[in-house]
Every structure is written in C-alpha cells, then in structure tokens.
Amino acid sequence: MNTQNDLFAHDHDSVSQLLDQMGQIPTPELKAKWPKSLAELCDVLAHELIRQKHTKDEAGLLAGKLAAALAHYMGGRAVYLPTGDTLFQALRNNAIYNEWKGNNIDDLSRKYGLSNPQIYAIIAEQRVLHRKRHQPDMFE
C-alpha cells in the first residue's frame, strides 16, 4: 500500500461500506441534510460527470459518493483549494500548440487574447514539452 492510502487505511473499509449504501437513499434527500457547501460541491461534480457522458442518475450518485468521501477525509480542516489557473493555463497552452499550423499565429492571438510574441513563446515551450514526452532523453 502506498503512503497516501496508508493515511486512510484505518477507516477506509467502514467508510467504503457506508458510501456503497448511498444508492439506497435518493440524492435530493441526502443533499437536503448536507451543509450548503457540500451540496454545492456535489452539484459541481455531478455537472462534470454529466458532461463526461454519465447519466443524470449515475452522475448524481457518483458525485454524492465523491463529495462524501472528500468530506470524510478533509472535512473540518482549513483546506486551501487553488483556483486551478495554472492547470487551465497549461491546458490552454497545449490547445494552442495543437491548433498551431505554422501560419496561424494571428488567428491564435485573436482567439486566445494573447500577443504574437506570447503565442510564439507558448509554442516554443510546448515544443520542448512535447519532445520530452515523445523522445526520452538518452542521457538520463
């Protein structure tokens, strides 16, 4: 077992058994008893699961289980949840690289609201990252 799982090993089985029973209670009934922030987290998770092609019922159940698991392991703590700006910037930069055709810098600049030099810098950075992903360094 890895270190991350060791942190929760003492009560993971009992929590898992409870989470497995969540399907027996309708999601709206469960959410009505939850604090507002936990219910909102459940809604965000369900929305993303629906976007990922899960049915509404399936998404509601999975979102409830995920939110409950997070509440169990992280509840009551002051936890900083980053905005995700760095992740979204990395995803945007990857999209720019994938859309780059060699002659569409102006189009990419307009589409993403960046200057041409910024687009060129992103392409150069992404080229290095893509090369590292697909061509391992022989000297490491």
Automatic annotation (TrEMBL):
It comes from the Bacteria. Gene3D superfamilies: Homeodomain-like. Residues 33-138 form the Mor transcription activator domain. Signal peptide: none annotated. Pfam families: Mor. SUPFAM superfamilies: Homeodomain-like. This is Mor transcription activator domain protein. It comes from Tolumonas auensis (strain DSM 9187 / NBRC 110442 / TA 4).
